[in-house]
Amino acid sequence: MIQIYHNSRCGKSRNCLALLEQSEKEFEVINYLTNPPYYEELSAIIKKLNMKPIELVRQKEKIWIDNFKDQKMNNEQIIQAMIANPILIERPIVIIENKAIIGRDLEKIKSFIS
Question: Which one in 19, 41, 93, 99 has a CA-CA gap of 20 to 30 Å to 50?
Fold first, then answer.
């Protein structure tokens, strides 16, 4: 089943969700702001995305700039920062089995879910 880590206040995330709804495929919506992933879950997502934790961080968010930007952080600390402040997680994330993609480009999502 397809999963989408969704933020309803984000236009890109809403567009991605609308695309999934139109696809008529079965999917699960995870509102990660109210139900943040735990450490192992976020680590698994990062692995499925095939990226480094810092690449999943929304580095222009005020929380990041004010609290983390100039700190030397290892991967575990970066993941912990995202768990403690889920607004820092790039969105939306679409997952199918062992693969994931950041769903900001609808054409890429169409290819990914087909």
Answer: 19
